[in-house]
Automatic annotation (TrEMBL):
It comes from Sinomicrobium oceani. Keywords: ATP-binding, Nucleotide-binding, Transport. It comes from the Bacteria. Signal peptide: none annotated. InterPro entries: AAA+_ATPase, ABC_SmlMolc_Importer, ABC_transporter-like_ATP-bd, ABC_transporter-like_CS, P-loop_NTPase. The lineage of its organism: Bacteria, Pseudomonadati, Bacteroidota, Flavobacteriia, Flavobacteriales. This is ABC-type Fe3+/spermidine/putrescine transport systems, ATPase components. Residues 64-296 form the ABC transporter domain.
Length: 390
């Protein structure tokens, strides 16, 4: 330090110089050299200084970057040359049939597996698996697994506060209360998880995952055990919270509401591959494949000629039609035989036969079985879908 000061003052008495009659330029040069020396010697300062002086705008950061990853447990790849990225605060839903690799993808992002190929980055830092990282999970990342992983012998309150520092006791307590409110478990704060139902345990795990305000949250079927009465409000509150705090979230789900209503984009997985990546509304309206459409509910593949005979489409060309897009009409060339009606709350789902093939549509009231009725569809829907269908 002394040699540094001597160098800085170019032979002047450093004490006099600093404490008394220093000119403006001397002070300026002293500070300049002082900061330069600090920057060289303390790496943390180097980092902080550059971030404060020249912060990178968040919209330029690609937060999560999954690059061409492949992974197998045994012979068959479970993740197969898969790539996608997520931006700051983006909510990405991952849908796909059971076994398509959604959970494995989340675990790979969390660093639980060593990839056979490809890389995963968070900002500019590579996420490495157990071969390089004994304790998986970085502090900026939280993963809510399907099996909750709660501490059985401590209270709900302590489970939620598990990762919060005891140094700021008041803040910690306020934060736990805020989260208990969000997951509506104030009355269970002192219970042990073993005395709670599966859905209540899942809510505790959700609150714990959010306690530290991670930069990225990985949610695997986060509402699967929670009753629909609570899920809607919880889902709204959770995603509002994530948006407010700009937390990036990847959510693996079977639930079409999770997949569509809150996500900025949706990834469709099939056999370890992402077969589609799109904004939810576009994805739903133009599913492109029967596989994608059927993730959102019952879907029909109907010969286009049956729906719009005058448009001159080839005889064997079919179009995907959701059940709510078909309606009964007085008279049309598209006639079906009614087989069964299922009450589904605000409508009936009706199973019919068209030329011996099953077909489903919705109607506000039951239709008598074994009658023949005419169906119709808005032509614009058909034309738009054909344009995008593979
Ligand atoms: N530990 C493991 N060892 C061997 N195979 C595994 C293991 N974990 C998962 N798999 C296999 O990897 C494939 C993908 O599983 P994964 O749990 O990622 O699917 P998923 O899409 O999340 O399914 P679900 O929706 O049912 O949770 C499945 O075929 C599964 O049997």
């Amino acid at each position: 330090m002394l040699s540094f000061l001597n160098k800085t003052q170019k032979g002047k008495n450093p004490v006099n110089h600093i404490s008394g009659a220093a000119g403006f330029s001397d002070c300026f040069f002293f500070l300049l050299h002082f900061f330069k020396a600090l920057k060289k010697t303390i790496p943390v300062f180097r980092f902080t200084q550059s971030h404060y002086l020249c912060p990178k705008p968040s919209y330029l950061l690609k937060m999560l970057d999954v690059k061409n990853i492949s992974f197998r447990f045994t012979e068959k790849p479970v993740l197969d040359t898969l790539s996608f990225s997520a931006e700051p605060g983006q909510i990405v839903s991952v849908i796909g049939e059971s076994g398509s690799g959604k959970s494995t993808l989340l675990k790979a992002i969390y660093g639980l597996y060593d990839m056979d190929q490809g890389e995963i980055y968070w900002k500019d830092k590579q996420i490495l698996g157990p071969a390089y990282n004994l304790v998986p999970g970085e502090s900026y990342m939280k993963y809510l697994a399907q099996d909750f992983d709660l501490m059985p012998y401590v209270s709900v309150r302590d489970n939620i506060g598990k990762f919060l520092s005891n140094f700021y006791k008041k803040e910690k307590s306020e934060r736990i209360d805020e989260l208990l409110d969000m997951v509506e478990l104030q009355d269970y704060a002192d219970e042990k998880p073993g005395n709670l139902s599966g859905g209540q345990q899942q809510r505790v795990a959700l609150a714990r995952a959010m306690a530290q305000k991670p930069e990225i949250l990985l949610l695997d079927e986060p509402f699967s055990h929670i009753d629909s009465f609570r899920t809607n409000k919880l889902r709204r509150d959770l995603f509002a919270f994530l948006r407010k705090k700009q937390i990036t979230c990847i959510i693996a789900t079977h639930d079409s509401v999770d997949a569509l209503s809150h996500a900025d984009k949706t990834l469709v997985m099939k056999a370890g591959k992402i077969i589609r990546e799109d904004q939810p509304e576009r994805l739903y309206n133009n599913p492109e494949s029967r596989y994608t459409a059927s993730l959102f509910g019952e879907v029909n593949e109907i010969p286009i000629r049956a729906l719009v005979p005058e448009a001159g489409y080839p005889e064997n060309q079919r179009v995907l039609v959701y059940t709510h897009e078909l309606h009964l009409t007085e008279k049309s060339g598209f006639r079906v035989r009614i087989k069964e009606c299922y009450f589904e709350g605000n409508h009936y789902l009706i199973r019919a036969l068209y030329r011996g093939e099953p077909l489903f549509f919705e109607h506000h009231s039951p239709v008598p079985e074994e009658t023949t009725v005419s169906l119709a569809i808005d032509e614009k829907v058909v034309k738009e879908r054909i344009k995008n269908q593979k």
